[in-house]
Amino acid sequence: MKKIYFITMALIAGLSNALSAQDLLAGWSFRNPTVFTGKETEATANSSTGTTFQTQPKITFGPNLTTAGTGNSGGFGGDISSAGTIPTTFAQAVSTGTYYEIILQPKTGTTVSLGTLDFRIRREFNKSPNMYVWTYSINNTDAASFLANKLHTEKDISNEYYNQVSGDASNNGVIQTTVALTGLTNLTSTSTVYLRLYFWNTLDLTGITTSTAKGYNFALGKTTTATEGNYEALNIKGTTTLPVKLTSFTAQKELNGVKLNWQTASEENNSHFEIYRSGNGKPDELLGTVKGNGTSSSVNVYHFTDYAPLAGTNYYQLRQVDADGKYEESAILPVNTSLQGNVLKVYAGASGSEVKIWVTQADAGKSELQITDLSGRSIYKQAVDLHAGENLFSVPFNSNKGIYVVSLISGKGEHLNTKFMR
Description:
- About 5% of the residues lie in helices and about 45% in strands.
- It contains 3 helices and 30 strands.
- The strands form 5 sheets. Strands 2, 4, 6, 7, 9, 12, 13, 15 and 16 form a 9-stranded antiparallel beta sheet that branches. Strands 1, 17, 18, 19, 20, 21, 22 and 23 form an 8-stranded antiparallel beta sheet that branches.
- A hairpin with a 6-residue loop joins strand 24 (about 345) and strand 25.
- The two termini are about 40 Å apart.
């Protein structure tokens, strides 16, 4: 479904159609509100815009990893499994499945553009994996896609490990260079993005036993700051275009019927609107169509008049139809014409100098009988006295062929309308 953004004339100030540039789309803190032990097998984002992704993003392990033997409290990391392989190249990291993964799938009706990724890394020891790269694939997990879609050059952080970082003798992970999520724009609900952080070891492990090397933890996040801010352990920023829901559209009784008004803030692939009506709360009668503006970033205002509403309560609904035939429906709007039980009918032949108007009235009273053309131009106007029950009037009428509207307006301002063709 292509997007069309509805706003109402009365509620423009209360609506928005996009998150601002570079909003936080998903963020992780491994310290707040719960301090991670560092031995978890997955980590769900504890900050995420609920309107952006189909499920709350989470980080998981690749198959070559297992729960960390020595956890990084306040971080997320794993060890290479006992049966696994210590990769020494990016290609080996891909083939062995040595990675952390985040899966992102936009919600239906949203368009997401990923912007940047910020994160900390903490190497447990000087022989922990020292190389990493972020990469991605869309809608598949083939190794070739991850090999081809590196988001930055491979980075060597041999000198960044616990208690060995210049100027930082703390237990913290090191804030890394921001990664631009290039190529991950205009994503829709049909796009499943697999973001992976691959890591491997190019260091000399002489004298290090295989079992020990596999426990040299490589963790995301890790900070000793109790009030870690801005989700600096790991966060993804970007923009999300959200359809503004049709919260209301106006409908007003007028002299010649019920007028509907609605407005769009922007449109994409909008073919037309269909207007439906019923008297039972389930609009199923197509009254007419209004042409849309295709793709537009400007405000567009639309109108439609029901020249012959039903007696009593009328229920209206808009259906916005895309060029490909897909559609979205608005909420149902009730409008009461207040002439419950009254009936207005017209008998007009193809020729002649008069029309006959038949009115069934629940209560006696004075009313005004009018005939107008579809532009609202008055053709006939006459005050009438109605009695309860059936009333029949012969009205002089010599206008040209066309469609006309008969309106009966009670002394209370209540309207009853019907159309006829001559």
